[in-house]
Amino acid sequence: MSEEELLALVDVWDTAERRIKRTERIKSTLTIPAINELRYAGYHFIRAGSANNDETRAENVSKAVKYCKRVMYDAVEAKSCITWSA
Hints:
The protein is mostly helical. The chain is 87% helix and 0% strand. It is built from three helices and no strands.
């Protein structure tokens, strides 16, 4: 994994984690779907780092980024539900 790929993935991960934390502060509960997505992202992040070939590495980086984006969507959706139900 190149340093550029690693930094991009870390940036997406950090953004996703911040959104979960922000939602948790507003909602005062855990957003389980988002946490599960972040867990899956971490799984693919580790797989990418330990991949034996470029194709497998790229596939796992792509999956990790997609899971991080789903985290962001889940967090936004959870906040929207809070807003509408208030």
